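Why show two proteins at once? Because comparison is the fastest way to build intuition. When a single record is shown, students tend to memorize it. When two are placed side by side, the eye starts asking what differs. So, the first record is below.
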Amino acid sequence: MAEDSDLEKTESASPRRLEQAREEGQVPQSRELATFVSLIVGVTALYVLGRWGGHRMMQMVKSGLSFERSQAFDPGGMLHILSELAASGMLTVTPLLLALVIAALSVPFLMGGWVFSVKALRFDLTRLDPLQGLGRMFSTHGLAELVKASLKAVLVAGVGVWVVWRERDHLFALMLQPLEASMDDFASLVLLATLLIVASLALIAAIDVPYQLWEYHRKLRMSKEDVRQEMKEQEGDPQIKARIRAAQREMSRRRMMTQVPTADVVVTNPTHYSVALKYDPARSGAPVVVAKGMNLIAHNIRDLAREHGVPILEAPPLARALYAHCELEQQIPAQLYTVVAEVMAWVFQLNHWIAEGGLPPEQPSGLAVPPGMDPAAEAPST
């Protein structure tokens, strides 16, 4: 039945499904990557701190074996010696432990990011079901884990046996060397074996990470019915609707801003409103509003216009009228034809002056809009 259910789930997980899985603590994980990173960090820490740590360990051994005969029969004295050795040992291994803790915390970030979910801590009685346990053992995931564990065991054992056999004469010779020299040689052998194990585990991790990502997304696949049900739920969710509207507004604003460099002129308030106009006689009978905005958006429109050399005209009544009575990608209303014609004539003269030279045209001033078109105009008293 479970296999039939998996076969029905042919659709990739939706963003909402992935978000829900993350809220439940389900993120892609790779134990092999964790093992590999921990070993890399551990080997690096041993390489950096090995000589210092080896020297401290050697001093600990010397001090631990050097005491007066009377101290051997003094429980208090021996306890003092042991406590000093324990404190020194903890201080020696603390940098290595800190490096391993940092490595363990960084691995989840490499796969799916850090996540803390209370739902993942809940006690689930179904995990105690022996039948489900057997099903997990003989599932594809269980078999893959068994293969990886067997491969790791063979690699680690093989590398260990190979190093011991290859260096057997060297290992026997350690017993005849001074303590410091034997410690250095033994540390070198351990480092060699660890590097070989890390190289072997790198191959397993390189295979396991893509597999875990594939397995994670496979488990979260949805059936067509799941997709339809999710769409119905989202359509009725006020938060989802608000997100969709916000995303649509943002997309519309970005699309609008891309039209500013193509405008013929930008009419400004000059601080609160900005309206960009474009006139193409071959496509429309009147100028078209390609962008408009208030406050910050108006400021951005002006900056973009300056950046691309679009003329800017300060005409507060006209800017307010255009903003209030014109929609994006729509022609200006007939009531504003006359005043906008003056603006477009100035733009034509300005372009001609830029191309041919001569005297620059004067900006039109005192542009008046018809009564009732300026929202800021005072209503006539009755």
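Second record. Ask yourself what differs from the first in the token line.
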Amino acid sequence: MKVDNLEVKIFETRQEMGAAAAQAVADKIREIQDTKDFVNIIFASAPSQNEFLAALKEEKWIRWDKINAFHMDEYVGIAADASQNFGYFLKVRLFDIVHPHSVWYLDGNATDLDAECARYADLLEKNPIDIVCLGIGENGHLAFNDPHVAFFDDPLVVKQVELDDACRQQQVNDACFDTFDEVPQNALTLTIPTLLKAKYAFCIVPGEKKADAIYHTIAEDIQELYPSTILRKHPNAILFIDKASSGKLKEISSYSQA
């Protein structure tokens, strides 16, 4: 299935989806490693990525010592070793296991957050991104670009944002926090243009709670109210979804699994 430029692949289970996404990313990494010394990759931190990350770390023939890793967002004020910290999430699930050449963490505890955004932006500018592995939020956000701050022509590379209520509630729904009030109100995020600068985008979105977001991604006009719709303009983007997250696509008259 293809919607504008976006290729959509549907799988029966989360495990099948994660394995297929990992295979596709691994193949692209190996392809790029044949042509350049280092591959620069942005990773997402969320439970939706668990199956993908678990499969990716098992992929053979990836030269992790030739990979530079970034992550796309971080809470402000969460301890670096807290389970909810996005850098720590990736550290324990992937980076400490596969040992990339470089891992650049976004520091949500920096004394000067503007300077931290500038530091990370400089790293991204000096290491152009080859691959972005991302998800889609329940509100359609990419990274922490919730609808009210998801500017398709954002002049910034990395910025501070205030999270909307839907985004904060999702963190409770995902069992990352026990209560809404525990979820930080502020975060740092790579902007939409920064994410889309990646030459290849692999978007992994399982689960029934994401069914509305997937429907909007595919059915709505491309607009900032539904940030994920911008993926349909990327020249090399693939959306991996499972049966649960694809559940509302049947409501689209033109929908076909072919």
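One difference worth noting in the second protein: Helices lie at 14-33, 50-56, 86-98, 113-126, 165-173, 192-196, 211-219.
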